[in-house]
């Protein structure tokens, strides 16, 4: 299949850059005629771009069109994040000014990190999935990684908006965001329904599953890591629950004061991690010890995507200037904070890579292979 449809989506996503600049400039001209002209011009550009895509041989998979729209919006989110941090200017100034009133959550440090994650990592995943759909390849693996990332982002953002200091200021933009959530949940179910593409020879499965743990040093290292990781996620959950322990109070004061930020995003993040990552670490211990746990392949993809998004947002917001100074990580504790949180984020990515590239230990021989 021709790749022109995927290329058209990529070009369409980049059209968001001049559209944002054009709209912002004309809105500030205070001219109704100019604003009308900008709207018509944007519609014409989008219509021509869509026509270019649709006149090619496009896939029947509806997620192609969903991710095409999401790729466009991801570039807009990146522009918003860059302008909020004064890296660029004049692209979405009007939106940022209005969002500070209509959707103040967007101007928090956590909101900034979400903009960057969506504008960079999610954007790359959308393009990869669009390319896979265009070429007729499976995109289930990258799709499950996106599902984990999206679910973590959505849960923390929605609950944080509801219970944080801006909980009484939920406006129309929040309900528009809920439309995005609804469509994305439908996309998640579509991805889950796709068949797995793992194909490993029976002899490889039998050989891998006969290997003892001592002869699998990498798996042994992962098992050793999972125990302190479990303790760490439970410990931070207790911290945000105001545990009176001297250790919890000292940790909050010297290493992660951001956990007490009144925006409530870090508190929700730690509670979700404790309730989600905690059980995950326990059952992953089982999956690394007992052969034939096929669910490990999907579960590690979901968890690594979720934890990557969570740790990126948490580390970035903890150090961001938009976070009040009293809630930022102290300068002398930053090396330890960054090292611990990076390890906590990166090791699950390595475990996911191990499961995806060498899945034989986790697979069960199919009846067809057994008969051979």
TrEMBL record:
Q: Where is the protein localized?
A: Lysosome membrane
Question: Which Gene Ontology CC terms are recorded?
Answer: lysosomal membrane
Sequence ranges assigned to domain EXPERA in this UniProt record: 60-188, 218-352
Q: Entry's InterPro entries? A: EXPERA, TM6SF1-like, TM_Tm6sf1/2
Task: Provide the transmembrane region boundaries.
Answer: 7-28, 34-54, 63-82, 114-135, 142-160, 172-192, 220-241
Top-level taxon: Eukaryota
Q: Note the Pfam families from the entry.
A: EBP, TM_Tm6sf2
The membrane topology term of the UniProt record is: Multi-pass membrane protein
Q: Which UniProt keywords apply?
A: Lysosome, Membrane, Repeat, Transmembrane, Transmembrane helix
Which PANTHER family is this protein grouped with? TRANSMEMBRANE 6 SUPERFAMILY MEMBER 1, TRANSMEMBRANE SUPERFAMILY 6 MEMBER 1/2
Q: What does this protein do?
A: May function as sterol isomerase.
Family assignment from sequence similarity: Belongs to the TM6SF family.
Q: What is this protein called?
A: Transmembrane 6 superfamily member 1
């Amino acid at each position: 299949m021709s790749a022109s449809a995927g290329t058209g989506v990529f070009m369409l996503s980049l059209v968001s850059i001049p559209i944002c600049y054009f709209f912002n400039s004309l809105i500030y001209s205070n001219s109704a005629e100019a604003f009308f002209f900008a709207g018509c011009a944007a519609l014409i550009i989008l219509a021509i771009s869509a026509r270019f895509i649709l006149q090619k041989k496009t896939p029947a998979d509806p997620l192609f069109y969903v991710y095409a729209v999401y790729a466009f919006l991801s570039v807009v989110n990146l522009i918003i994040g860059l302008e909020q941090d004064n890296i660029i200017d004049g692209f979405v100034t009007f939106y940022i000014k209005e969002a500070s009133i209509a959707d103040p959550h967007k101007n928090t440090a956590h909101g900034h990190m979400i903009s960057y994650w969506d504008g960079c990592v999610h954007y790359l995943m959308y393009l990869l999935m669009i390319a896979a759909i265009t070429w007729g390849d499976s995109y289930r693996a990258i799709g499950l990684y996106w599902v984990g990332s999206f679910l973590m982002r959505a849960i923390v953002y929605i609950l944080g908006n509801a219970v944080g200091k801006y909980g009484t200021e939920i406006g129309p933009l929040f309900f528009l965001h809920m439309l995005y959530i609804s469509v994305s949940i439908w996309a998640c179910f579509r991805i889950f329904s796709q068949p797995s593409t793992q194909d490993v020879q029976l002899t490889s499965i039998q050989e891998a599953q006969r290997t003892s743990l001592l002869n699998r040093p990498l798996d042994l290292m992962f098992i050793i890591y999972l125990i302190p990781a479990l303790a760490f996620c439970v410990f931070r959950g207790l911290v945000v629950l105001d545990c009176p322990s001297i250790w919890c109070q000292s940790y909050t004061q010297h290493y992660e004061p951001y956990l007490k930020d009144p925006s409530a995003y870090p508190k929700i993040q730690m509670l979700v991690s404790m309730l989600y990552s905690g059980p995950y670490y326990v059952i992953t211990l089982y999956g690394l010890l007992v052969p034939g746990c096929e669910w490990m392949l999907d579960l590690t993809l979901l968890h690594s995507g979720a934890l990557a998004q969570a740790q990126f947002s948490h580390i970035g917001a903890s150090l961001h200037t938009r976070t009040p100074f009293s809630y930022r990580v102290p300068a002398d504790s930053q090396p330890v904070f960054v090292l611990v949180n990076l390890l906590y984020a990166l090791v699950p990515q390595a475990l996911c890579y191990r499961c995806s590239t060498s899945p034989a230990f986790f697979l069960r021989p199919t009846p067809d292979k057994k008969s051979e």
